[in-house]
Design goal:
Layout lengths: L1 E4 L18 E6 L1 H4 L3 E5 L7 E3 L20 E8 L8 E2 L1 H4 L11 E5 L16 E2 L1 H9 L4 E4 L23 H8 L3 E4 L13 E6 L7 E10 L1
Parallel strand pairs: 5-7, 6-8, 7-9, 9-10
Antiparallel strand pairs: 1-12, 2-3, 4-10, 4-12, 5-11, 11-12
Helix pairs in contact: 3-4
Bound molecules: zinc ion (ZN).
Length: about 220
Amino acid sequence: MQAIDLSHPVRTGMQVFPGDPSVEFRSAATVAADGFAVAQLHLGSHSGTHLDAPLHTVQGGAAVDAMPLEALMGPARIVSLPEPSVNTVLGWQDVSGQLENLLPGTIVLFSTGWSRHFDTPVYLEHPTFDTEIAERLVAAGVRLVGVDILNPDPTPGPAAPGHAQGETFLPFHDVFLGSGGGIVENLTNLGAVPWADPWFSALPLRLEGLDGSPVRAVAFRP
Ligand SMILES: [Zn+2]
């Protein structure tokens, strides 16, 4: 079996959503001093390549440990949207041609190439996805969407035109997570997947009652 890693390395000081907890690894024990190595991890639940559970934006929504595993792995469709410019709003007409004949339950992965800007300020000026895309995917029976950007909605701050600094504005999240689905953010390397319709897996840690979790996202061919 061939597998392609679609995850960013998780490491101290990596870029996170503005205002989220920083990622810091510390040594809690070392082989030299203790005979074994143990690390202490400090990070937010949305660090690096991660899964948003419904609970992220929906009061009383499902947590990562309550999401069915079957929805988080399976046949996927990669939608290629190469080189959108800064703050582009992608609409249904930009993606619909690559979403024909979608079977219910297919995982949809949007590849913009934006992941090459990870860890730079430009990464925050990512393209965004119109709410109609979320509505149409939900209607088609899609339960999991992945993006190679920080956020399918505008990220608050100077990078989000038309929205005040710090304003939270999450219409894509509200529709897609509101349907009980999940969103995988900060994917990378989607352009390296050689198969038109790969399988995809993004399993969260079984973090009880939490709104999100880092994942090891993988494309593979069974
Ligand atoms: Zn998230």
